[in-house]
Write a structure and sequence with these properties.
The chain is mainly alpha-helical and about 250 residues long. The protein is built from 9 helices and no strands. α3 packs parallel to α6 and α4 runs parallel beside α8. The mean pLDDT is about 85.
């Protein structure tokens, strides 16, 4: 795992150099943006809505019993924006788009298409990795913004349906608790997570050698490794921004 992480860092540096050289084509990046974020939007919205609904069911009755129903909206919103939306969206994109990235590059590797690109004097790491990493970092935050909104709305609907909490009281609690800093941090998380998914899954696919069976194994490993690294990154970001209040 340590050697794999080191290889990811090397590929990231190569991708940054490729990006700064101006060789990346915008069309490739836009195609990857559609594959990574746009195609993953429906499943991300469903997950966010259901997660917010479950939280609202668990929280609303307990808060109502203690007379703290005015805090329901704020509590649900903070949980969604700080963790649920960026974390679950990244995991959904990893499961859907990340495995697709790994399988695509792995298939090119085992069918010698990567070797053909090398003979054309094109850096395969830059060519394959840069558009995907760039697309992930730029577009996943846009998906997260939408999932946050859907999650907040979902919490409001369930709170009204379960305990009759008026939407105005819910929204007032949201504005009372929510800070701009929380939104900034969630977008930073989303950008980092998007880059991690693309980088880890592309690296795993690039390491594939053998045949069709190895492509399947590589896809499975990509899902596992990206999930582990996403959780570690989430832990580190929380330490940096929530334990150190001087940042942002």
């Amino acid at each position: 795992m340590i050697s794999f992480f080191g290889l990811c860092v090397q590929n990231l540096i190569t991708s940054v150099k490729y990006l700064l050289s101006g060789e990346m084509r915008l069309k490739n990046m836009l195609n990857q943006a559609a594959a990574i974020s746009y195609d993953s939007l429906p499943i991300s919205l469903i997950i966010s809505f259901i997660a917010a609904a479950v939280i609202a069911i668990q929280v609303s009755k307990q808060f109502l019993m203690t007379g703290a129903d005015t805090y329901i909206g704020g509590t649900i919103t903070l949980v969604i924006i700080r963790e649920i939306a960026p974390g679950f969206t990244a995991l959904a994109i990893s499961a859907r788009a990340g495995t697709s990235i790994s399988a695509e590059i792995a298939n090119m590797q085992v069918t010698s298409q990567v070797d053909a690109i090398k003979t054309s004097k094109v850096n395969p790491v830059g060519y394959f990795f840069t558009p995907r990493i760039t697309a992930g970092m730029l577009t996943v935050p846009l998906v997260v913004i939408i999932t946050e909104l859907i999650g907040i709305i979902g919490g409001m609907i369930v709170s009204y349906a379960t305990i009759g909490l008026h939407p105005n009281r819910y929204i007032n609690s949201v504005w009372l608790w929510l800070q701009t800093r929380d939104i900034y941090i969630s977008l930073i998380k989303a950008s980092v997570f998007g880059g991690i998914v693309a980088l880890v899954c592309a690296t795993q696919g690039y390491l594939t050698h053998g045949g069709a069976k190895d492509v399947g194994k590589s896809t499975t490993q990509a899902a596992i490794k990206s999930t582990i690294i996403l959780l570690i990154a989430d832990f580190v970001i929380n330490i940096l921004f929530y334990l150190n209040r001087s940042i942002l």
